[in-house]
Amino acid sequence: MPVTLDEIIFEHRNKNYGAYELRKTYTSTVNRAMWIGITLFSALFITSYIFAHQKDKEEKVTIVELNPGLIKPDEIPPVEPLPEPEPPREVERARTIQYVAPEVVQNTEEEIPPPTPEEMETAVISTATTPGEDATSIITEAPPAIAPPVETKIAEVEDENKEFITVEVNPSFVGGTSELYKFLGKTLQYPSAAQRNNVGGRVYMSFVIEKDGSITDVKVVKGVGFGLDEEATRVVKLMPKWIPGKQNGRNVRVRFTLPVTFKLE
């Protein structure tokens, strides 16, 4: 028996592993697969050929002629003529009498002579003449005098603790705005948290300047964070007394808003 290439390759190797058997049956396996493929391809080709030829056959079309019967329209009944209107009846006229409007005639009244000056001195002027005593002998009493109404003014009581937003004389820092900036520059300390994060900005503070100029009710209206709000609050509370605002010539409480700017250089 001649020695094949597979025997040489698998000499001293495990032939039961499976690779040896595959190499041995490789040729027969390929031939079997080829013939199966040829068979399937041929069957597919023949089937498509038969189907195409069957589709090309012309279908017979039968034409059926329909002869519908004529439908007679419904007979319309004749329109009856309208009856002629009756002639208008003559209305009998009633008897009439002419009416003459009565004429308006002015009445002739007796002319009353005007009173003499002597009669007017002892009588009261009126629209008619009536008998009575002389006017000089009648004592008439004057109506009682009515005192004019007394106007009472209600004193307006203003709330002593009222907060004003706008006043006639605004409150001011002692020494002016320049002194206020100097105070803020000396007192403010930049928070370390804001320095580390390179944060700056403007903190809007709101507070009340009392009648004596002291600072109360300190609030942060708009903050930045990172310790800047707390530092601005601390400095505002340390401010000295301001010159208080005035309304109607007296000191009043005024709500004031101050922007405090933090900037890294």
3D architecture notes:
This protein is of the alpha+beta class and 265 residues long. Among the domains are: 1-53; 163-262, TolA/TonB C-terminal domain (2-Layer Sandwich), CATH 3.30.2420. It is built from 7 helices and 5 strands, in the order H-H-H-H-E-H-H-E-E-H-E-E. The protein has helices at residues 5-9, 19-24, 26-56, 117-121, 177-187, 192-196, 228-237, and strands at residues 163-164, 201-209, 215-222, 245-247, 250-262. Strands 1, 2, 3, 4 and 5 form a 5-stranded mixed β-sheet that branches. The longest helix has 31 residues, at 26-56. The protein is flat. The chain starts with a helix and ends with a strand. Residues 99-108 and 138-143 have low confidence and may be disordered. It is a single-pass membrane protein. One of its GO terms (molecular function) is energy transducer activity. It comes from Emticicia agri. The chain crosses the membrane at residues 33-52. It is found in: Cell inner membrane.
